[in-house]
Amino acid sequence: MSLSEVTSARTGVDSLWASLRVEAAAASAEEPILASFLNAAILRHDSFSEALVYRLAAKLADAQLDAMLARDIADSAIAGDPEIVTQAAADMMAIKDRDPACIGFLQPFLYFKGFHALQIHRVAHWLWAEDRHTLAFHLQSRVSERFGLDVHPAARIGKGMMIDHGTSIVIGATAVVGDDVSLLHEVTLGGTGAADEDRHPKIGKGVLIGAGAKVLGNIKIGDNARIAAGSVVLKDVPAGCTVAGVPAKAVGNCCPQPAKSMDQSFIDEGSAI
C-alpha cells in the first residue's frame, strides 16, 4: 500500500472505531442488562484492534483453546499482518452499506456470524502462510462447528467482503476472492475432481453471488459480474455479465456495481455463454 492508502485506511479504522464506541455506549444506556457485555466487548478497549481480538477470541474459545490462548493467536496474526485490522474495518463498512437489516456497526461486530467467520479465516490464513497448518485447521474446524461455514485457511479473500447470513458457505483451498464481493447464504466456491491442483474459482472484484449458487472448478468470474441465486456455474463469466440457471447461461449485463447495490433483478435474454 502507498503512504496515502495507509493513511486513508488508518483514518477509516479510527472513524469506524469512534462510531462503534458511540453505538455501544448508546446501546448500554438503552439496555442496561447488556451493559457489562458491551463494556467487555467494546468500551473498555483502547482500539478497534484490541476489541476485535477480544471478540474473535470469545467466539473461538473451546475446550482445546481457551479465550486467553485464542487472544494470543489473534494478536500474533495482527502483529504479523496489520492489514487484517483494515480488512475487518472494510468488511464492517461493506455490511453496513449493503445490508438494509444492519442499522449500524454494532450488529456485525457483535452478532453477524458471516463477519466473525471471515475475520477468523483471516487469522487462520496468516497461520497457514506461516506453515502452522494444524492450528489453522483447528480454527477452520471451530468456525465450521460454530457458524456453519467452511472456508479453507489457504483460500485468499479480499477486503470489503460481505457474507450475508453466512449459513452453509463453502470456499475451497485454491479459491481466490477479490475485493468488494458479496456472497449470500449457501454459496459454494468448489472444486471439480480430487486431484491436488489449482481447482477452485477465481472471483473478480465487485462480484455478487446469489443464495445457493455453486461456482465449480478453476474458472474465472470477471469483475462486477452477477450470479443469480441457485445457479450452477461451470465456465468462465465475463466481467459485467449476469448469469443464471443450471448450467448457468448469460442473461444480460448487470448494474455497474452489483455487489454494492445487491440488485438481483434481471431480464432473461436467453443467450448462451
Inertia-based shape = globular
Biggest sheet character: 6 strands, mixed
* Secondary structural class: alpha/beta
Helix count from the secondary structure assignment: 9
* Average pLDDT rating: 92
Which oligomeric state applies? single chain
Return the CATH architecture of the largest domain. Orthogonal Bundle
Share in β-strands: 5-15%
| Helix and strand pattern | HHHHHHHHEEEEEEEEEEEEEEEH
Rounded to the nearest angstrom, the radius of gyration is: 19 Å
CATH class group of the largest domain: Mainly Alpha
Sequence stretches where pLDDT stays below 50 over 5 or more residues: 269-273
The CATH topology label of the largest domain is: serine acetyltransferase, domain 1
Q: Going by CATH, what is the homologous superfamily of the largest domain? A: serine acetyltransferase, domain 1
Give me the count of strands.
15
Helix content: 40-55%
What is the straight-line distance between the termini? 37 Å
Output the strand order for the largest sheet: 3-6-9-12-14-15
Overall number of structural domains: 2
Q: Could you outline the blueprint of secondary structure elements for this entry?
A:
Layout: H1 3-30, H2 35-43, H3 48-60, H4 67-80, H5 83-98, H6 106-111, H7 113-129, H8 133-147, E1 150-151, E2 156-157, E3 162-163, E4 170-171, E5 176-177, E6 182-183, E7 188-190, E8 202-203, E9 208-209, E10 214-216, E11 220-221, E12 226-227, E13 232-233, E14 241-244, E15 249-253, H9 258-261
Parallel strand pairs: 1-4, 2-5, 3-6, 4-7, 5-8, 6-9, 7-10, 8-11, 9-12, 10-13, 12-14
Antiparallel strand pairs: 14-15
Helix pairs in contact: 1-2, 1-5, 2-3, 3-4, 4-7, 5-7, 7-8
